[in-house]
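sry for the spam today, last one i promise. struct tokens for design, 144 residues
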């Protein structure tokens, strides 16, 4: 994987995307800023583990797996969603393209029917734990 000097630095992009999660307790919108890398990859920063470490991940809608056991979507401080003891997977090999990419992991946002190894996807996990008011997430893209 390509070394990054500053993991929290946002990639250069033409488009910014916001993903909204409706937090249950405070009934506020959690906004996760994501960045389009030439409309090929959509990247977001997440925090994993204790203490939290930030990683730049690709938002993927194909399988539903994740690469860490605790995930925080990095919205505004008071509107973050934290999921503990979540199932995760680890890649055993990387393609040459993945080794040169701007991301450090993949977070899958798929629903159960297409998940690998019967793992619970992060959004379904959040719904089961009542972390979301409604089983909805939306993605809004705009050119900047």
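last one done:
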């Amino acid at each position: 994987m390509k070394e990054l000097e500053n993991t929290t630095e946002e990639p250069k992009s033409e488009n910014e995307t916001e993903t909204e999660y409706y937090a249950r307790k405070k009934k506020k919108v959690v906004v996760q800023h994501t960045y389009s890398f030439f409309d090929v990859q959509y990247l977001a920063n997440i925090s994993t583990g204790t203490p939290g470490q930030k990683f730049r991940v690709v938002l993927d809608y194909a399988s539903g797996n994740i690469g860490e056991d605790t995930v925080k979507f990095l919205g505004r401080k008071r509107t973050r969603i934290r999921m503990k003891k979540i199932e995760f997977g680890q890649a055993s090999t990387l393609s040459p393209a993945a080794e040169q990419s701007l991301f450090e992991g993949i977070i899958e946002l798929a629903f159960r029917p297409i998940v690998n190894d019967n793992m619970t996807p992060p959004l379904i996990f959040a719904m089961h734990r009542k972390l979301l008011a409604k089983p909805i997430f939306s993605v809004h893209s705009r050119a900047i």
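The chain has one domain: 15-143. ok im logging off now
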